[in-house]
Amino acid sequence: MDSSGAVASASPSSPHMCALVLARGGSKGIPLKNIKLLAGIPLLGWVLRAARDSEVFDSIWVSTDHDEIEKVAKQFGAQVHRRSPEVSKDSTTSLEAIQEFLHKHSEVDIIGNIQATSPCLHPDDLKEVAKMIRNKGYDSVFSVVRRHLFRWSEIKEGNEVTTLQGGLDPKRRPRRQDWDGELYENGSFYFATKDLIKKGYLQGEKVMYYEMRAEHSVDIDVDIDWPIAEQRVLRYGYFGNTEKKQIKKVKLLVCIIDGCLTDGRICLSEDQKEIICYDVRDAIGISLLKKRDIQVLLISERNCSKTISATKLDCEVEVSVTNKLQVVEDCLKKMNLSWKEVAYIGNEESDVDCLKTVGISCVPADACAAAKTSASYICKSNGGHGAIREFAEHLLLLMDKVNSEEKRK
Fold this sequence. Notes:
The protein is an alpha/beta fold. Helix content is 33%, strand content 22%. It contains 14 helices and 19 strands. It has helices at 43-54, 67-75, 94-104, 123-135, 194-198, 225-236, 245-248, 257-261, 280-291, 305-309, 324-335, 352-357, 369-374, 387-408; strands at residues 17-22, 37-38, 41-42, 59-64, 79-82, 110-114, 140-147, 151-157, 160-166, 182-193, 207-211, 252-256, 267-268, 274-275, 295-299, 316-318, 342-345, 360-363, 377-378. The strands form five sheets. It has a seven-stranded mixed β-sheet, with helices on both faces. The longest helix is centred in the last third of the chain and has 22 residues, at 387-408. The chain starts with 16 loop residues before the first strand and ends with a helix.
């Protein structure tokens, strides 16, 4: 993908396929839901990352009417279509918003309408759908999930209400393993050709479904779904550059002292001695990592070695650092590690190079904008208030996920 958000197409003559995420600012359930943090990433970011890493789209777009959503979309490499007030109402349909987009972007031949509320979407699913619609001539392909639920219908006749079983004979209820189940739309994506959309349809003519795995079928509609979805994403989501093998190999956490271990404030006693405060939860987080043989290196741009030694955190410390990237490189050579084996938590512009280079990176909630853009995980906690503990738990959960999956193979 180039700097404009475009991905190189398979061949110059291929129809232009774009990913389009509709992300209106208004939400009756959760205010600005599309950019609310879910497992450390804005909700919108999960699907944009999957779209980008699938490498099947000639361009990736977000259609929005909100400045903050536009900002997040650009941070994740998408181009932005500012939708008009006419298609930004509560009553506006997805079809109407897509038709407006196509009217402005005549170069597009195929729309992959990806739902922002499907954070467990994986690039492999998008690759398969792209093959179906490019190579097999389908006019529309949509995502479904297989459910093994016994469906009943409500029949009203006057004041009487009866029920009717749908599809199966209740006198011959099959066992789950003897029944194929039924297919339900899961709302993750709807691919359609421009010609079909112009006719007023997102599904139709030569149409086919694409069946997604049940664990990847997460759709966030109401606030109560949020904590459940967060756990599902941590277990089944796509983590981009931090995926699988890299997570398994983490051997070192590099942590910035000022603004991560502490909240960035410095207090002085009457005799001019420096006093800093740190959260006991963060000390526990460091201890959890060390128990899993992950070493911890603390870095500061100030000379605070005496203050840090007083914390008794039993970590390697580098102070008076002017080039963080060089310091980490020197540490890796000493420990015979690669960048992929490093986790990093920073909060300032001077951390950006390291955040972009390591295997997995993190920033506290109150980090600067440049650092947030470069990180793979954004904490809910501020620096000095549990961010390290939060990141430690996140990192260990990802490692356990990989180990668990490998044991099942």
